[in-house]
């Protein structure tokens, strides 16, 4: 008796605790995340149109046709109802069509590569406003943020102004990872030697959590950072503070930074090598290493030359065949045959 009371009390406390939760995913501070939260709720409500009636009818049938209810109609030979079949199959079909349309539209509108069209549901992006570019590198096990416009870099700390579009360009140093700020937008994966993009905006000043949402090794648990959304004046002051801190992030220092480490503190650099992100992306930070872009360019040139040679060879073979055909069809005198044979031989030799 006491144990059941305790369990009931714990269950009630759990429910009360959950009702007070401010779930970030459903109460975000960025417009993209807000649209994603709205999509989730619309999908849930639409699915409840099926789930709730099914649960209610299941309970009602169990009560209505219980063994002790002798007044309920007993019809063991019943097996079909056209009206019931239309309801059972028609309503879910319509629901699937509606969910499919919503998913198709939202997939394009919320494409992370798509430039933003608005700051929020009431404000479009003003003319002439350019997104703030942030280059993100997933390291083992920390986050490197490079601001090419401001010329600074940080580790495990991100700051941007509110109400300004942000274009994240993301890659990884070694293994696949996932960048996720629940209050701003959905997660986006990072992969070595590849670049992904995320366009987003934050609408409320505050400090938010960011982390890796894809397991990437022993230090994955502590691969977290703080994201500071600021007004323009505070962001400019933050940039000035970082620039006053001294230090430059060069390739040699990056190679030390890229070594696996856990629970790294926040670090800041007043300047950064402008080619560093491109070198990380192309796997050529170390001196003497050929960049992936150069290797792919050389491969493309070799393939182009090979295709051109093959096309010339085939064209030459076609010319030889044409001359041979002409020799067989139009030769009337030994002199003509000798002339065509010589042309065919010369074409074969030249190819």
UniProtKB/TrEMBL annotation:
Membrane topology: Multi-pass membrane protein
Stretch list, region Disordered: 299-319
Keyword match Oxidoreductase: yes
Every Cytochrome oxidase subunit II transmembrane region profile domain range: 17-114
PANTHER family linked to this entry: CYTOCHROME BO(3) UBIQUINOL OXIDASE SUBUNIT 2, CYTOCHROME C OXIDASE, SUBUNIT II
Similarity comment: Belongs to the cytochrome c oxidase subunit 2 family.
Broad class of the protein's primary localization: membrane
Cellular location(s): Cell membrane; Periplasm
Transmembrane segments: 39-63, 84-105
Coiled-coil residue windows: none
Domain of life: Bacteria
Domain Cytochrome oxidase subunit II copper A binding positions: 129-241
Keywords: Cell membrane, Electron transport, Lipoprotein, Membrane, Oxidoreductase, Palmitate, Respiratory chain, Signal, Transmembrane, Transmembrane helix, Transport
Name of this chain's protein: Ubiquinol oxidase subunit 2
NCBIfam families: CyoA (TIGR01433)
Stored CDD domains: CuRO_UO_II
Pfam families assigned: COX2, COX_ARM
């Amino acid at each position: 008796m006491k144990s059941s009371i305790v369990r009931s009390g714990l269950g009630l406390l759990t429910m009360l605790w959950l009702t007070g939760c401010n779930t970030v995913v459903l109460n975000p501070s960025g417009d993209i995340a807000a649209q994603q939260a709205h999509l989730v709720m619309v999908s849930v409500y639409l699915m409840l149109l099926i789930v709730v009636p099914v649960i209610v009818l299941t309970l009602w049938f169990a009560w209505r046709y219980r063994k002790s209810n002798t007044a309920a109609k007993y019809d063991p030979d019943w097996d079909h109802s056209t009206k019931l079949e239309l309801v059972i199959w028609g309503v879910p079909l319509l629901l699937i069509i509606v969910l499919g349309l919503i998913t198709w539209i939202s997939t394009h509108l919320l494409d992370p590569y798509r430039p933003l069209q608005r700051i929020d549901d009431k404000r479009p992006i003003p003319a002439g406003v350019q997104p703030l570019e942030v280059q993100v590198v997933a390291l083992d096990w920390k986050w490197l943020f490079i601001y090419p416009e401001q010329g600074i870099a940080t580790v495990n700390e991100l700051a941007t102004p509110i109400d300004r579009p942000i274009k994240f360009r993301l890659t990884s140093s070694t293994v696949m990872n996932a960048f996720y700020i629940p209050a701003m937008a959905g997660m986006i994966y990072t992969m070595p030697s590849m670049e992904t993009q995320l366009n987003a905006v934050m609408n409320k000043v505050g400090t938010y959590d960011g982390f890796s949402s894809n397991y990437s090794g022993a230090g994955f648990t502590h691969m977290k950072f703080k994201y500071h959304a600021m007004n323009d004046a505070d962001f400019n002051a933050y940039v000035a503070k970082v620039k006053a801190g001294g230090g430059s992030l060069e390739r040699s220092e990056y190679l030390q930074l890229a070594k696996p480490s856990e629970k790294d503190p926040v670090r800041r650099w007043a300047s950064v090598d402008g080619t560093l992100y491109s070198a990380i992306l192309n796997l050529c930070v170390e001196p003497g290493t050929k960049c992936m872009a150069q290797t792919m360019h050389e491969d493309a040139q070799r393939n182009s030359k090979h295709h051109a040679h093959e096309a010339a060879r085939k064209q030459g073979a076609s010319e030889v065949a044409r001359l041979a055909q002409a020799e067989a069809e139009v030769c009337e005198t030994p002199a003509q045959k000798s002339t065509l044979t010589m042309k065919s031989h010369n074409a074969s030799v030249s190819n």
